Amino acid sequence: MSSSICGDIDAQPHHVVLFPFMSKGHIIPILHLTRLLLHRHLAVTIFTTQANHAIITESLNDTSASILDLPFSHNVPDIPAGIESTEKLPSISLSHSFANATKVMQSDFERALHTLPHVSFMVSDGFLWWTLESASKFNIPRLVLYGMSYYSRSMSRAVATDRLLFGAELDDELITVTPFPWIRVTRNDFEPPFTEPEPKGLKFEVTMKAVRATKNSYGIIFNSFNELEPLFVDFWNRKYIPKAWSVGPLCLAEPPKVRNEAHDNYKPIWVQEILMHESVQGFLSHCGWNSVLESICAGVPILAWPMVAEQPLNARMVVEEIKVGLRVETCNGSVRGFVKWEGLEKMVKELMEEEKGKEVRKKSKEVAQMAKKTMEEAGSSKCTLDLLIDEICGKKT
After folding, report:
1. Are strands 180-185 and 175-177 parallel, antiparallel or unpaired?
2. Upstream peptide bond of 77 is cis (omega within 30 degrees of 0)
3. 177 exposure class (CB count in 10 Å sphere: 0-12, 13-18, 19+)
4. What share of the chain is helix, strand, coil (3-state, %, to 5)?
5. Which of 94, 73, 382 lies closest to 250 in space, CA to CA?
6. pTM of the model
7. One digit per residue, pLDDT tens: the chain, 397 residues?
8. Which parts of the chain are beta strand (E)?
9. Which residues pair with 327 in a beta bridge?
10. CA distance readout (Å), 273 to 58, 241, 284
């Protein structure tokens, strides 16, 4: 069940449990957070399943982090046997069924917690709402890690609270977001349950379980930085609970790695060797939040082509708010419209050759410098994580 990469957690004064949702895009930020915690002399134990063990080991094999594998039932309704991550699901429509099914791990998770040295706090994914109940049984403060920006979280909460999406007649009709009158969104920027006047069904149930658990947790960790979206950081912490801490961009916690290019299995490192390569002048992106942050840190402007989830909101943020990208045009102008090659060609030329492209390239370089500074000594995200650990552990780091 257990595999320790190296190190002895009994020798550490403070011990942190991390539990990522079983999806690569959710696992990667927690792996980066692991390094930041270890750097602050905290012991770290990561929970996962056997099928997800390798990706964690490969990333952290030079650290003292420990990994504990929990069994995942192969007899879960709607989920084919043997599937333990969202990447393996036959359809993205099953993602909420999969999230709901993770609760089968709760009893094994609690048995494992009982065997561990004292846990100072827990960081678990927002989709793993049931870990709050487990944390409470052991009197462990639970922090939630969401792979979203303050902007997208604030937009989602604002339109839901004020029921803004139900006055528009058309899905692509622009709607002013009441707390932010300069921002206009459409119903197509959102997915169910936000677009449903009377939401119901499993997706809504899972969403509400996550929302309630988050509200009752110790706090939220955002993979963002205050300088990137200061208005939305302030809005969130004034309007909502629990308190949020900005500790990103977490991708900058990954140390440079030397790869042997002569090796048969050599794979270029995405951010360091591809995205940051001097020849790369733009990134055509679906605008998942990890990808947005990676592009920001590389100083590479984004051609935004969102697909699902909160990606349309991320695209609006990139193009309209922080202005480090351009939006790929669809045939009919709809957020969810079809994109033809001519439209894509037009935007590539605009990014590479025209004045608007020059402006976003310049802004991208400026924001990249901000991102790097925030993770350095005396940077805002570095200090925020220090303050969080001081507060929750009652010690100086």
Report:
1. antiparallel
2. no
3. middle
4. 45, 15, 40
5. 382
6. 0.89
7. 444 444 444 445 799 999 999 999 999 999 999 999 999 999 999 999 999 999 999 989 889 999 999 999 777 778 888 888 888 988 888 898 999 999 999 999 999 999 999 999 999 999 999 999 999 999 999 999 988 999 999 999 999 888 888 877 788 889 999 999 999 999 999 988 888 888 888 899 999 999 999 999 999 999 999 999 999 999 999 999 999 999 999 999 876 665 555 555 555 566 666 777 777 778 888 999 999 999 999 999 999 999 888 999 999 999 999 999 999 888 777 777 778 888 888 888 888 888 888 899 999 999 999 999 999 999 999 999 999 999 998 854 4
8. 2-4, 15-19, 43-49, 66-70, 121-125, 142-146, 175-177, 180-185, 219-222, 244-246, 283-285, 302-304, 325-327
9. 304
10. 18, 39, 17
Q: Are 263 and 177 in contact (CB under 8 A)?
A: no
Domains of the chain (ranges; CATH) run 2-151+198-253+374-393 (3.40.50.2000), 270-372 (3.40.50.2000)
Amino acid at site 44: V
Q: Which residues of 10-28 are buried (b: 16+ CB within 10 A; e: fewer)?
A: eebebbbbbbbbbbeebbb
Amino acid at 103: K
